[in-house]
Design a protein that fits this description.
The protein has 363 residues and is of the alpha/beta class. Helix content is 17%, strand content 28%. It has a 7-stranded mixed sheet with strand order 3-6-9-12-15-17-18. Strands 21-20-19-24-25-27-26 form a 7-stranded mixed sheet. Helix 1 crosses helix 3 and helix 1 packs antiparallel against helix 6.
C-alpha cells in the first residue's frame, strides 16, 4: 500500500478541502482465497493486494477476490461498497457447504486510476475490471466489467461518458497530485471539444465502403448481439458496430476520447472501451467462460491492425466467440496468429477501407 505524499489542500468552488494520502475510514477489509480452501497454493502463489496513492476506503467497504487485487491511484471505494469476486456456483453445494470447496475459480480484480465505486454499490463476481475514472453509481449492482471513463448504474447500464477526462489523461502525463488539484473541469471539456471538432472527421473515414461488413453482420443481428472490436486505428467501424452492444479493447488510449464522444453524441450508450489489451488475454463479455452455466461470448469479433500492436493468437480470438460466431481478421495479422484452431473455419474474404480481411466461423 502506497501511503506516500502529503495532504493536498484543493479548491472546491469558493472553498477548499483536504485530500489525504491513502487511508481507511474504518472497517474496510480485504480477502484473498482462504488458505484452508486453496490447499495447493505455496506462499509465493498467494494473491497480492497492491494499492496506489491517494486511495480512499470508506467505512464498511471491502474486497473479496480470488486473485491479485490492483487498485490504482486516486480510486475511491465509498462507504458500504463491496467487490465480491467469488463464484459459489448455484449448481454446486448448497448454502454454507459451498465453503468446504475451493473458494473461487475467478481471476483477480483491477480498479484503474480514479475509479469510483459509489456508496453501498456491489460489484459482482464477473467484474474483473473497473476502468479509468469510471463510476459505479450509488446502490448499483453490476456483474460485468466497466469501461474506461464510463458512469454506470444498476446492472452496468451506461448513463454517461467522460471523454474530456480520457483526453486529459491520454495526452498529458499528469501526476496524481496535479489531477486532484484541477478545479476547472469545464475548461478541460471546452479544450477537448475544440480538439474533437478538428480531429474527428478524418478518423471517421466517411468515404470508406463498409457494405461488405454491414451485409455480414445482418445474419448475426439480434436484440442482444455483442461485438468485440480489437486494436482499432480509426473510428470508421464504430458507427456500424455500435448498432449492437460493442466492446472495444485497445493497446492505446489515443482513440478512447473520440469513441466516447461519438457514442455520447449519438446516444449509443452500449459501448465499452478498455485500454489494457495484451496479446495474452482478451476481455470476455463477462470475466469468465460461463455465467451460471449460461453461454456467453461475442457474436462477432473484428481484429484490426493498428500499427505497433501485438498480434493476438488465434486460440485467444476463438475463445471469445460464441458457437456460430464470426471472426473478421486483418490479413496482416494472420502470419503471427499461430495455427488455426480446429473450431475455426474460413468462410469468406472482405475488403474494408482498402484493407483485406478474412472471415472465420466458430463451429
Amino acid at each position: 500500500m502506497d501511503t506516500s505524499g502529503d495532504p493536498l489542500l484543493v479548491k472546491e468552488g469558493a472553498g477548499q478541502h483536504w485530500i489525504l494520502p491513502t487511508h481507511f475510514e474504518g472497517g474496510a477489509y480485504f480477502s484473498a482465497p482462504h488458505a484452508d480452501h486453496q490447499y495447493a497454493l505455496a506462499a509465493h502463489q498467494i494473491p497480492r493486494i497492491d494499492i496506489g496513492r491517494y486511495v480512499r476506503f470508506g467505512k464498511g467497504s471491502g474486497i473479496n477476490a480470488g486473485g491479485d487485487i490492483t487498485i490504482g491511484d486516486g480510486a475511491w471505494l465509498s462507504p458500504g461498497s463491496l467487490l465480491l469476486r467469488q463464484d459459489h456456483s448455484a449448481y454446486g453445494r448448497p448454502s454454507i457447504g459451498a465453503r468446504t470447496v475451493s473458494m473461487t475459480d475467478q481471476p483477480g480484480v483491477v480498479l484503474r486510476d480514479y475509479a469510483w465505486v459509489g456508496r453501498d454499490a456491489m460489484v459482482g463476481w464477473n467484474s474483473d475490471y473497473l476502468g479509468l475514472a469510471s463510476v459505479v453509481g450509488t446502490r448499483s449492482f453490476i456483474n460485468s466489467w466497466v469501461g474506461d471513463y464510463s458512469i454506470v448504474g444498476d446492472h452496468g447500464r451506461i448513463l454517461q461518458y467522460q471523454p474530456f477526462k480520457a483526453f486529459l489523461f491520454g495526452r498529458f502525463q499528469l501526476s496524481v497530485e496535479e489531477v486532484l488539484r484541477i478545479s476547472d473541469w469545464g475548461k478541460v471539456d471546452a479544450d477537448w471539444l475544440r480538439t474533437y471538432a478538428a480531429e474527428s472527421g478524418p478518423l471517421l473515414g466517411s468515404g470508406d465502403d463498409l457494405s461488405e461488413l454491414a451485409e455480414l453482420t445482418t445474419e448475426l443481428r439480434h436484440p442482444r448481439m455483442r461485438t468485440l472490436l480489437l486494436k482499432p486505428d480509426s473510428l470508421r467501424l464504430v458507427p456500424l458496430l455500435a448498432e449492437a452492444r460493442l466492446d472495444i479493447a485497445t493497446h492505446s488510449p489515443a482513440l478512447t476520447p473520440h469513441v466516447l464522444q461519438w457514442a455520447g453524441d449519438h446516444k449509443a450508450l452500449r459501448v465499452r472501451v478498455r485500454s489494457d489489451l495484451t496479446g495474452a488475454a482478451l476481455p470476455f463479455e463477462t470475466a469468465g467462460h460461463f455465467h451460471y452455466n449460461k453461454r456467453t461470448g461475442y457474436d462477432l469479433t473484428v481484429s484490426e491492425h493498428a500499427p505497433g500492436t501485438t498480434v493476438v493468437p488465434f486460440a485467444e480470438l476463438e475463445r471469445t466467440l460464441l458457437q456460430g460466431g464470426l471472426l473478421v481478421s486483418d490479413v496482416r495479422d494472420l502470419p503471427g496468429g499461430g495455427p488455426l484452431p480446429d473450431n475455426l473455419v474460413e468462410t469468406a474474404d472482405l475488403t474494408l477501407a482498402g484493407n483485406q480481411y478474412k472471415v472465420f466461423r466458430k463451429k
